[in-house]
Amino acid sequence: MATRGRPRTFDPDTALRQALDLFWERGYEGTSLNDLAQAMGIASASIYACFGSKEDLFRKVMALYGTTSGEPPRRALREQPTARAAIHEMLRATADQITRPDTPHYCMLILAAPTGAVENHAVREFLADRRRDQLTTIRDRLARGVTDGDLTAPPASLDAIARYYTTVVQGLSIQARDGATRTELEAVITCAMAAWDTLTSAPSHRRLSLRRDHDLGLP
Fold first, then answer.
1. 50 burial class (0-12, 13-18, 19+ CB within 10 angstroms)?
2. Distances (CA, A) of 144 to 58, 86, 89, 153, 200
3. Which one, out of 13, 39, 41, 123, has a CA that is 20 to 30 A from the CA of 165?
4. 213: pLDDT strictly greater than 60
5. In whole angstroms, what is the distance from residue 22 CA to residue 25 CA?
């Protein structure tokens, strides 16, 4: 009869949360397996047995991040009744999450990525894919606004608008990491939403607006 292995003496969910905290604080390349073992309170062999390699563990950490700190912005996109309200609330939820006093002030999707080592290429691509998913989610919400009738932007412009607001999200994270306060980020969001009407209006409306500005002598 085969001998059963010893039961785990740690809670995998708690250990995963501890790994998330460490990766979030130090990034992927700044976190070693020994660092993880110490933070999680388990041996390196237990990490491999329960979670796989460091890369496997990081992927599980990012899944947890997506269902916790990463969820409020996505929920805003799903639940707000109009495309404009959804984008606005997504930006505000992002700013809320990246300025919380109990977590590092940046989005892991954007700033936890490795930058140099060739062996970390797969992790860089994994995070790039997640950021592309974010872009797709924003674009899909804009398309839903067109279908629902609250957004009049031509379909061909939705990708550019989605990329613009994705860029704002990423910029908010960099600003927060560099010390911007929640109030300062709100001012950025106000500016970004001030561009909404120009970005989403039909080309004929934009031409009319430009002609009016020209007639008034505005730049």
1. middle
2. 33, 11, 16, 11, 14
3. 123
4. no
5. 5
Which residue is associated with the tokens 């460091």? 54
Other residues' Cβ atoms within 10 Å of the Cβ of residue 19:
24
Mapping DSSP to helix (H, G, I), strand (E, B) and coil, where does residue 203 land? helix
Six-digit token pair at 125? 């691509």
Q: Provide the 10 A C-beta neighbour count for residue 122.
A: 11
Return d(Cα 113, Cα 29) in angstroms, integer.
8
Q: Residue 216's pLDDT is what?
A: 46
pLDDT, mean over the chain: 88
Read off the pLDDT of residues 111-153 as tens digits, 9 standing for 90 and up.
887 676 777 889 999 999 999 999 999 999 999 999 999 999 8
Domains plus CATH for the chain? Answer: 12-64 (1.10.10.60), 69-200 (1.10.357.10)
